[in-house]
TrEMBL record:
Name the record gives this protein: Uncharacterized protein
Region (Disordered): 328-360, 460-508
Signal peptide: none
InterPro entries cross-referenced by the UniProt entry: Acyl_CoA_acyltransferase
Biased composition (Low complexity): 475-485
Ranges annotated as biased composition (Basic and acidic residues): 333-348, 462-473, 486-501
Amino acid sequence: MVQEITITTPRHNNQVIDIGDGFIMRWSTAADTENIADLVGDAFRYSSFSATPEGEIPGPFEPLMCCVRRLLSGNSLAMSEYDYAMVENTRAAAGENPIVACAALHEIPSFYGSVKMIFGKPEQIACASAYRNRGLVRRLMFDMIHPESERRGHLIQYMPGIDYFYRLFGYEFALSSPDGSELSNLDDNIPKLNEGEQERYILRPATVADIPYLVKLSADKRCLFTHKTEVGSIYDHRYWHYFVHGIYQPPHISWYDQSRVVTILHDTLEKRDIGFNQHVYMNGLGWQKFALEHGIAMRNVIYPVLRQMVALAQDQAKACHAYEMNKKKNKAKKDDENTKQKKEQEEEKEKEEEEEKAPEISSIALELPLEHPALEFLSSKFDPRPDVPDAMLYARINDYSAFLTKVSPALEERLARSPHFAGISATLRLHFFRKVEGMNASGLEIVFENGLFVHARPWKKPTREQEGAEKQAKAKAAAAAAAAAQKEKDDGEGENKEKQQEQPSTATTTAATTVFGAQFYPLVFSQLLLGCKSVRELIWSNIDNQTDDNESRLFLETLFPKVEHDIDLLIW
């Protein structure tokens, strides 16, 4: 089991960088909370999660402002209050927000195959509109976030992010988050209970006492239905304690602090717990996790779970609506105190109408692992899936050699299971054309001996002239060896030969080494390394991607098969 992370103190020695014109970059303290929250709320006011009516200018995006407050509370699952990198305008006028750009650094317990490791995650990146196009986010990423992440030993960083932008910082879309299927027409697709019938299987709120049960089930891939998942988040004690208990602690000041709900599935007939469920309501219902103990039939429990989950989300929708309506009322009162009495009278008349306006839960976004049997069971009821890939996440692996060394036990296990390459001694040489941002070398050499990892190190493909010279040197050496052997034979040193045959040989026998090769467009190897795409898919997507031969392709697919990912995006 991975050692749990305790994030309580700053790890970057209160670094401050003067970047000129009155601007400095520094790390946060709890005192910066409201300024960062205001910046993030303003920067994301046009977020795709917002439900602002068409034609209206949206206000600051409160859900992310709440996230900032939790992240900087000192009790966050992902970071300490000292882990927001910021650009501060030291010449800001009175009343002006001095924080003009920011980026948080999260630490996420994760796994690659059988190897447990920590993934770095830049998050909540924002820049005030008046200060954009000055390279401030670039400075934060290159001078603070990436160096600090690497200093902590993070061999990979990942994030969701706006289209293309983070490619400028060495990121490539190489991880996925299941997102694409949707179940709508819920009245037709979810059978109702018969009159007088009661649910046998009920969802009850999870408590701190349930955490060991949640850890046990989520650690079992068969219970969580993540059989094919080879890269993902670890759901350990800290994770569940946070989402069962931590998010409800101060600063719990907004409805949006309770959007994620964890429930235990209880069998009232057998009087025992048989699984858990997790959903989130954020202007819509997202079904995130559904785990069952072994031997529980999906067909028996899925509709009770869906009925109750939708009912819980509907209560959340009403509470969220009431919260937003109350905010509008309070704002209206502050805007015009002279019409206070009139507004109160109007509020009474509109109360029933406002309650009716609360959004109905009409669909469920299915964010479960792709191999989850619930998806298979409901597949005939899905809306047509859009002809686009699942939600893609950026990933940055600046040092492939270090990453491969860390995950080498998983690579050895894959070779050992292979009917083609078990016990192989081989050298794999990969050419990436040129060194670019996000990778520290233009090529890579990976060596295995008798099926065991020896090393991974930067490698530079020789030029054609160098290859020609090398072939010439080898040919000359071979010719010289042949001539020497012929001379020895011609000399007829029989007596010496006889003595040599009588003596035991001192030569060591080594396994024959096979050399495999391939080339990939810069950064594209990350997609193969993380199992996002197969070798064939990469070749078909770009003819620059090639393997030396079919055996090289097969060797690559053995080491780096296409796999499923299980990434929790909202560890806020």
